[in-house]
Amino acid sequence: MVEAQTWATRRMSNPRIMDGSTVSTTSSDQVLDIPATPPGDLRNNAYSTAGSYFSPNILTAGIIASWYLSNIGVLLLNKYLLSYYGYRYPIFLTMLHMISCACYSYVAIKFLRLVPLQHISSRKQFMKIFALSAIFCFSVVCGNTSLRYLPVSFNQAIGATTPFFTAIFAFLITCKKESVEVYCALLPVVFGIVLASNSEPLFHLFGFLVCVGSTAGRALKIRGSRDFVNIRS
């Protein structure tokens, strides 16, 4: 159990809300092993230096643009290495990606102080983070492997079905049913991928299955990051 923190806990995580009123819980029912979300003023302080040179809108646009460019660049570079250059080790390539992400994240948190440093506070929390990390690594490995067999455009088209798998995992994990409108909106996406798969000249069955596995893993990570942290012992 984690000691009381000064930051407010995440919404709907603890304490439990019943009949519109807050009900105090015993120590055995509390779920406080999640690092609290830093308040807005503390998060904004991390951008005070950059904000002195750029307006918040320009800074936000720059961050979003850099995110898109870095993702597109990594995707095209992976495609070049795995398909055209003939690199045959997608798992090792994924390991390099993960090590690079860990190093850059450490520099951004420890030295640049872009976001507050948060510590793992319990073994239970560590296991949840480890599970999400394993799912994410599985998704990245499958995505890199699929690039050996599928075009980038088809790979990204399959990735567009992530909301469909997210809705499925939401039902399987939390038994939460989306509205009929949501399911109806997801059907054209699924049918579009079926049609694209039928007409794709460079279709490869193994690459398609691995890419679907990558998309499902990505959706499970998204769903798990919302729900796993709230699962009681």
Give a quick rundown of the structure.
The chain is mainly α. The chain has nine helices and two strands, in the order ββααααααααα.
Description:
The chain is an all-alpha fold. The chain contains nine helices and two strands. It has helices spanning 40-45, 48-51, 56-84, 90-111, 123-146, 152-159, 162-174, 180-199, 205-227; strands at 17-18, 21-22. Strands 1-2 form a two-stranded antiparallel ribbon. It is found in: Membrane. This is Sugar phosphate transporter domain-containing protein. Its main location: membrane. The chain crosses the membrane at residues 58-77, 89-109, 129-147, 153-173, 180-196, 202-220. It is a multi-pass membrane protein.
Question: Helical percent range?
Answer: 55-70%
Largest sheet: 2 strands, antiparallel
Q: How many extended strands?
A: 2
Uncertain residue segments: 1-34
Per DSSP, the total helix count is 9
Strand content: under 5%
Head-to-tail CA distance between termini: 11 Å
User: What structural category characterises the helix and strand content?
Assistant: mainly alpha
List the strand order in the largest sheet.
Answer: 1-2
What's the order of the H and E elements?
EEHHHHHHHHH
Query: What is the average of the pLDDT values?
Result: 77
